[in-house]
Amino acid sequence: MTMSDTHKTLLRGAKPLGGEPRDVLIEGERIAAVGTGLDADGATVIDAAGQILLPGLVDLHTHLREPGREDSETVLTGTRAAAVGGFTAVHAMANTFPVADTAGVVEQVWRLGKESGYCDVQPIGAVTVGLEGKKLAELGAMHDSAAGVRVFSDDGKCVDDAVIMRRALEYVKAFDGVIAQHAQEPRLTEGAQMNEGVVSAELGLGGWPAVAEESIIARDVLLAAHVGSRVHICHLSTAGSVEIVRWAKSKGWNVTAEVTPHHLLLTDELVRSYDPVYKVNPPLRTEADVMALREALADGTIDCVATDHAPHPHEDKDCEWGAAAMGMVGLETALSVVQHTMVDTGLLDWTGVADRMSVRPSAIGRLTGHGRPITAGEPANLTLLDSAYRGVVNPAGFASRSRNTPYEGRELPGRVTYTFLRGRATVVDGKLA
Amino acid sequence: MDAHTSDAARSVLEAPDIARVLTRIAHEIVERAKGADDVVLLGIPTRGVFLARRLAARLEEITGKPGRIPVGSLDITMYRDDLRLRPARALARTEIPDDGIDGRLVVLVDDVLFSGRTIRAALDALGDIGRPRAVQLAVLVDRGHRELPIRADYVGKNLPTSLRETVKVQLTEEDGRDSVLLGLRGTTPADGK
Amino acid sequence: MKRHLISAADLSRDDAVLILDTAEELARLADRPIKKLPTLRGRTVVNLFFEDSTRTRISFEAAAKRLSADVINFSAKGSSVSKGESLKDTALTLEAMGADAVVIRHHASGAPHRLATSGWINGAVVNAGDGTHEHPTQALLDAFTIRRHLSPDGSGAGQDLAGRRITIVGDVLHSRVARSNVHLLSTLGAEVTLVAPPTLVPFGVESWPCEVSYDLDAVVGKTDAVMMLRVQRERMNAAFFPTEREYARRYGLDGDRMARMPEHAIVMHPGPMNRGMEITAEVADSDRCTAVEQVANGVSTRMAVLYLLLGGNESAVAAARTEESK
Fold first, then answer.
1. A160 catalytic per annotation
2. CATH at residue C166
3. pLDDT tens digits, residue range C95-145?
4. Which residue of C has its CA nearest to B95?
5. What single-letter DSSP state applies at residue A276?
6. Residue C326 resides in a domain
7. How near does any CA of chain B get to the CA of C254, in Å?
8. Which chains reach chain B with 3 or more Cβ–Cβ distances below 8 angstroms?
9. Is residue A153 within 8 angstroms of chain C, CB to CB?
10. Could you give the number of structural domains in chain C?
11. What cofactor does its activity depend on (chain A) (predicted)?
12. Could you give the domains of chain B?
């Protein structure tokens, strides 16, 4: 996977952030020049006319499943899926087997990421030992490790104990860490199978009330304010959560939030099919929630899109709803869903997309080298998107090891044609390099 | 069965004819049964039931025993041999007279005798209800084309037909008039018999 | 073409009346010397029960046998299912055995729907109760019982339940019987009122075609039938209500409340009853209580369902909504 440092690529006529067409010359690991009529001398020329050039996408919330569930995904297959989706960096969630709650495990994941070569892998460390919510994990050791962990999360489980949450928020201030909270009040969601509302009442499936998310978010923004730390809200899913985050930000508190692509598009009406491909946590909500989330992403209340890419083997979805695993894959469809829900609706321009899918997630994760402007001298982490493309999602062609996408058979716009990781193409003409 | 009959249909029996043949059949039953003391009339829904009631009235007249001829209905739907060829059908009423059919002379009554399959089903149904002394069959029209070794004991009218033709019996109780119509398949709805 | 009975909501008024009329005819079989019809000879009906329910299973078994179907009882207890075999593998096994219909009882809401739409099996699927979702044949037998009791001629053939006032009392939240009854009885034109403590009324109930009341006494005087739901004592531990005594006092049916019902009104219970909880022994044993009759009616109603789903080359009742959504 090595490549000559002097290799040159010229993107001819690409539209950086959807603006005027420019030639972009990549030389080695960096952008050498951005201009018009650039000399192609010795460079591989890519006709990028009409295509959108974005900074390489950054995902704050990816389940790579390795170690432990290599039957659903590995660091290699997950990063390949990420590259296909236009990502140049992903944050690997800690709920692996064993849990990423020690320096050893996060370093293992970090090293596997280095070896994969398809995108940067930034491990997330668990907040508590074994995700059990009882005892703080060695947050400092994980930060000090080669993995340099700054984002900590018990995702999949909520840090529901207020004292543990307070201590974690305080503790990570020492190394500019952030706690990414999976906001789910456990008692209010016992036996929860889907959003609590009209549809759950009819289907007889256990309800997951919005208040179970909102009450935790309310508590945590207050805690973060109280101890002067920063908190990040994972996969925010309700209109009420948006209101709370908006209020917290208006106070100047250090609160950030993410929304998943599926919560920007899908609603709990889909659960009427009882098809577990729509089973996800937090659950698909209502149309009103979807609209509030789009609006909040547009106005910046929600900082970023994060995929919550959650691969599961076929058998964990090919069963009755109650027995099925929660989660959806999302890396390979994220940008298309964002184009469909945010760009094609006029809510966000491409600069906005770059901000919500690259700049801000990089900033929250304190990544360097990602989410940078498309100017000379910057690291060449880039994504080229054919936004005019229309295609039907076919999971058989996924690079991910898993196929649990809710979009199968659905037409979505946009296709990543090239992804560059520090100047090297990981995706060429829509296919893995 | 209530579908409109096209102009192409030709009436082969009118109300007076039907009245006359029912009276004749009633007389034949009394004669063959040597009185009608143990006769039970069971009509096959829908129109066979009305014919059975009319026959019962005539038998009571002839024998001078008003209200003494037991009459009922026998739905054969669940015994049909062509159930799996069509959607499941609504059931009609089976009404067996209070004294039952054991040891009695059961006269099955239907409007049209065609393939004989309905009567085969009726005999099966009867077997699950009791053990008559004998079973006889009365029909208003026998149109031929038997597919089973079955014949009628009492026939109102023998009507030679081709398979392209349809025979439709109309009775006042169900259709507002009495008549037997002969039509062509595709021009009048098949009666399925 | 598939034909299933997954939800009472899938039935149109005409479908429902057809099933009730068919059940009415089949009920007469009970008076005959041979209580059996040859209609489903050579067809195989599998009772696939992932949850214990002897009553429902034997009711379906009797129904299928009276129609001459071969019946295979497949109970999850003590079988490979309890050893982790999936619903899918069980379904594939049944398909290989040539099941024409699968009557399924499952603890997971939606399992019958999944079975019917997954492509795992070709046979008809009849929902015999799934989780807290639906129990459509129970609703049909309840409607059958109500129609018989409230019609002047004692059968109500051809009629629906237009204008009848039915009150369903108890743990609506966890009740598949209530969900199916709300759908079916309203489809048949009845006015349904749910009565329960607010904790046992589902969040989102406002979309249901019924009224909701928290006060049994306010409703009991103007109802044609009161359906008491079983209330499990364990619910108390999850704080749905404070004590058994308080529940019984506010939402139980006792002799006094029964006396305030209109004279013609009946008391129904899907069984098994918790005497002293939702119903007093006095009411349970009174001749206004139809619980035992409901059991008998269950066989005729399930015969009607099996006949109409399996008796022809296609279902006589509308295809389940599962087809529309696929």
1. no
2. 3.40.50.1370
3. 998 999 999 999 999 999 999 998 899 999 999 999 999 999 999 999 999
4. C28
5. G
6. no
7. 40
8. C
9. no
10. 2
11. Zn(2+)
12. 15-81+91-163 (3.40.50.2020)
* Sheet with strand A231-233: strands edge to edge: A151-152, A178-181, A231-233, A255-259, A304-305
CB atoms within 10 A of CB B157: 15
Considering only the beta carbons, identify the residue of B88, B96, B128 that sits closest to C307. Answer: B88
Same domain, C275 and C203: yes
Q: Is residue C212 part of a domain?
A: yes
Interface test with C, best of A205, A270, A274, A321 (most C CBs within 10 A): A274
State whether B94 and C25 contact (CB < 8 Å): yes
Q: Judge: C204–A196 Cβ closer than 8 Å, yes or no.
A: yes
Q: C230 lies in a domain?
A: yes
Write out the residue range of the structural domain in which residue C84 sits.
4-135+295-321
Q: Nearest-CA distance from B101 to chain C in Å?
A: 12
Same domain, C74 and C152: no
Spell out the domains of chain A, with CATH numbers in brackets: 8-52+377-432 (2.30.40.10), 57-365 (3.20.20.140)
Residue found under tokens 């990420």:
A82
Q: Report ipTM (2 d.p.).
A: 0.89
Shortest CA gap B15–chain C (Å): 30
The shortest CB-CB distance from B129 to any of C32, C67, C315 is to C32
Cα A422 from Cα A413, distance rounded (Å): 27
The model's pLDDT over B79-128, given as tens digits with 9 standing for 90+, comes to 998 888 888 888 999 999 999 999 999 999 999 999 999 999 999 999 99
- Asked if residue C60 and residue C202 are part of one domain, the reply reads no
Best A203, A267, A318 residue to mutate vs chain C (most C CBs within 10 Å): A203
Same-domain pairing of C271 and C301: no
DSSP one-letter string for C252-286: -B-HHHHHTS-TT-EEE--S---BTTTB-HHHHTS
- Residue A315: closest CA among C130, C76, C84, C95: C84
Q: Tell whether C287 and C141 lie within a shared domain.
A: yes
Looking at A255-381, which runs of residues are DSSP E strands? Answer: 255-259, 304-305
Chain C meets chain A (3+ C-beta pairs below 8 A) = yes
Same domain, C185 and C125: no
Residue tagged active-site, from A23, A101, A120, A308: A308
The closest CB to that of B84, out of C34, C37, C313, belongs to C313
